[in-house]
Prior knowledge:
Oligomer: homodimer
Largest sheet of chain A: 7 strands, mixed
Radius of gyration of chain A: 23 Å
CATH class of the largest domain in chain A: Alpha Beta
Shape of chain A: globular
Amino acid sequence: xxxxxxxxxxxxxxxxxxxxxxxxxxxxxxxxxxxxxxxxxxxxxxxxxxxxxxxxxxxxxxxxxxxxxxxxxxxxxxxxxxxxxxxxxxxxxxxxxxxxxxxxxxxxxxxxxxxxxxxxxxxxxxxxxxxxxxxxxxxxxxxxxxxxxxxxxxxxxxxxxxxxxxxxxxxxxxxxxxxxxxxxxxxxxxxxxxxxxxxxxxxxxxxxxxxxxxxxxxxxxxxxxxxxxxxxxxxxxxxxxxxxxxxxxxxxxxxxxxxxxxxxxxxxxxxxxxxxxxxxxxxxxxxxxxxxxxxxxxxxxxxxxxxxxxxxxxxxxxxxxxxxxxxxxxxxxxxxxxxxxxxxxxxxxxxxxxxxxxxxxxxxxxxxxxxxxxxxxxxxxxxxxxxxxxxxxxxxxxxxxxxxxxxxxxxxxxxxxxxxxxxxxxxxxxxxxxxxxxxxxxx
Amino acid sequence: xxxxxxxxxxxxxxxxxxxxxxxxxxxxxxxxxxxxxxxxxxxxxxxxxxxxxxxxxxxxxxxxxxxxxxxxxxxxxxxxxxxxxxxxxxxxxxxxxxxxxxxxxxxxxxxxxxxxxxxxxxxxxxxxxxxxxxxxxxxxxxxxxxxxxxxxxxxxxxxxxxxxxxxxxxxxxxxxxxxxxxxxxxxxxxxxxxxxxxxxxxxxxxxxxxxxxxxxxxxxxxxxxxxxxxxxxxxxxxxxxxxxxxxxxxxxxxxxxxxxxxxxxxxxxxxxxxxxxxxxxxxxxxxxxxxxxxxxxxxxxxxxxxxxxxxxxxxxxxxxxxxxxxxxxxxxxxxxxxxxxxxxxxxxxxxxxxxxxxxxxxxxxxxxxxxxxxxxxxxxxxxxxxxxxxxxxxxxxxxxxxxxxxxxxxxxxxxxxxxxxxxxxxxxxxxxxxxxxxxxxxx
Lengths: 443, 443
């Protein structure tokens, strides 16, 4: 494509991680190296939601040290949102099970078209010619739709998706920025909790269940296997993956064996694990919340009840929740470096005329670990989920094997040390100077 | 007291912390400076339980680097136990509500006497003349009883208790080793989770509840107020203390206010918090576990149900559990330094002829922070619990005030950096060479 001169807009979407800001830092720094093509550098507040409301901030007005400090600052500094543009395909419409659903889908299609109009009004009002969106599956789909729409409308704009998700479930990329840090923190925690529980273990035995994120893919749970450091006696003794349907009697036997062997047992469980009927263990179908949804009492809690009933062994639970994806104090330097590189690569691709791609990470070798970035067509990325390969999990389904460890090991290497102030990390908060609005407020 | 020459025994008791090993390091290193008085240096495995079984290890056989490394190694390296010697007083016997309870108490008294005999057989068999016990309330009581028994039996032995508890509920000491590290980690976590939840906060609001340890004292919950760093907009927005009985309608109003002001609300809750009737919120009286105890579903879980029903606001929970007391990767240098100093002070006191004391920390000034160690009579320590003073909590009961912050601030200063290996901390594991047994196995 010929060169285009104009302004840049970057936004973040989906669940925050402690590496997603590094991608913004990388992109903004790289943009600064192309003043001939990129004029203003804007950030969209709260993802697509802020852009729809023309809620932009001027990243050129931030201190260089603040942009640099984004490399060690957790969460989405530009803000993120749960708002989703529902692009309804003809196929989805045809599959609607009744008129009511068909009507709902049609309404969503109209809303999506209206949202798209609004986005392009904002892009055009601010002469946005470079658009970067960091996020997971849904966000890559949004990037694809924006790219296609730009082509259709003849609005000359480069659109590149930047991968981000602790879930590590994007396809085609070797791994996702955000993943290395979450498993570094979780493996550290499993190691420490393991030493704690082990030091209390006497003849009556002791069990601790640590629940980690991952509703459908077990990458996060799998990563805690690094805490074993090659010794079967080290925790975690059991990992439960959402990809596998478990026979709970079989599971209880594994716990019994570990307690017999080590006097304690540390279990890591992905939040979405299922029983042999394929039902989520953490879902309590008998109880409904204020919205009428089945209450998720939590997989760890359910397993605790089972173990205490079957084994009469004291069982404690840890639920890391948001703490695991926000733990910048224990981030992986490899992860943060790669996240920044993905931001840089996105801008380099765009200024060289590419559009409609997601940046991906390529592994050149595991030992020594060598990697690079490349581009992948967004049409092959959107809405495809990537699971832990069955052959990376032990035959009995309760642990990863060497192949996984070789994959995951390099991703947690190196430490990020944020500056400290009064005993706590000093994270960056952006000034966030608003860009003057040019459109009438959206109805 | 005149000088006594003989061997030393040190053991750990109660819940592990990430500073209790530093006390062992301090004590062992100090003992090495008194070779004229202290011969062998033994560690008792799994607290009193291991000593009863003559399960001792030879700490002189450990590498100096391993003892030094205990300063950054979490949990109880010598092992700990839940076993308790029940010393039954005449008063307790007189208060027994029926014959059955009286019989149970009498049985415990007989067991305690038998345990005491066994302990002194071990002390005498190994010529133990210096005994150090690191632990919380129960352990200080055990130290007192052992000291009194030694005097009664005419066994010339120095007994000094070393304070240790993340709960910070020992009396007479300014604070307890282990406390500074747990609140440094918890405040860091609250800060990070707060940035995460805040970055996702849009108009629909968002709530996150973080449950921390503390069944009866709110010191651990209180410590997370440090994450506010003087800004009311910063999380935590609400802290619930076990010392206070809460009107839940009042609490829900506070949540509503925070969501209105900041679009999100981070709540920290001590596990033992109570409603206005004084009943533990986390206890589910309708449900009993395998042992017949009321199931503690957890305070955070109960509050989540309440908030979602009343405010229709998405509410997530984090349950830090054992992770918080084992988090050596985020330990406070001040805490670990003080813990080591308590170990040293215990040995110095003992070799200078003192017995029947607990080491305590004295605060000389808060700004600049200056501290020293001293001794306190064990008779005044045992079984007294120390709560957060009501005047350090805001009038409405939902936050600490300046007095608490002045108290807690210096305790989290400085970082402990364990050596790293393949992206994870490299903690010390002792060789644990067993000391040859001299007694017949206990019946």
